[in-house]
């Protein structure tokens, strides 16, 4: 009986992540960011599912308080990771121009 109460509390405390914005509803900048994601990030990261690939799934990355690393989920930390890499993720800053980075960040906010 006690474990049922504990389980109920745990489930009640869990927040579900809202679904990503449908692709058809993306702004032009977000759609460009989706294309950048598919080309540069999609090999290692899932964006619209929670599937694990070579790196963590990024669905809901800005809908949580913290990144998988424990760092705050904000534009500065995400951009720093994209530019300079982290752990097994290579730095991607030299593979994208500023417009690609801005578009990618706009897209990441939709997933």
UniProtKB/TrEMBL annotation:
| Keywords, ordered alphabetically | Electron transport, Heme, Iron, Metal-binding, Transport
Spell out the SUPFAM superfamilies in the cross-references. Answer: Cytochrome c
GO MF annotation terms: electron transfer activity; heme binding; metal ion binding
InterPro entries given for it?
Answer: Cyt_c-like_dom (IPR009056), Cyt_c-like_dom_sf (IPR036909), Cytochrome_c550/c551-like (IPR051811)
What's the domain of life for this entry?
Bacteria
Q: PROSITE patterns annotated for this entry?
A: CYTC (PS51007)
Instruction: Outline the extent of the Cytochrome c domain.
Output: 28-111
Protein name in UniProt: Mono/diheme cytochrome c family protein
State the taxonomy lineage. Answer: Bacteria, Pseudomonadati, Acidobacteriota, Terriglobia, Terriglobales
